[in-house]
């Protein structure tokens, strides 16, 4: 999965644990969402400069990623 974009869970991305390698010079932001954009829809999120690990749940609606390296499923 590309490190930049918004993905619909069950359609664009399957539930599971994913890892993104460290980025050089920028932060990796990700968010698990229960609906579209908006702070009230965030289930969990993180903003890191190192490796990022996230477990996307079957009940999540969207996964959003910005400034991250490509995601690899474990």
Question: Care to describe what's here?
Answer:
The protein is built from no helices and seven strands. With 74 residues, it is an all-beta fold. The strands form two sheets. Strands 1-6-3-4 form a four-stranded antiparallel β-sheet, with no helix packed on it. A three-stranded antiparallel β-sheet has the order 5-2-7, with no helix packed on it. The mean pLDDT is 93.
List keywords for this structure.
74 residues, mainly beta, 3-stranded antiparallel β-sheet, globular
List the helices and strands and how they pair.
Elements: E1 5-8, E2 16-20, E3 28-33, E4 42-48, E5 52-56, E6 62-66, E7 71-73
Antiparallel strand pairs: 1-6, 2-5, 2-7, 3-4, 3-6
Quick overview:
The protein is mainly β.
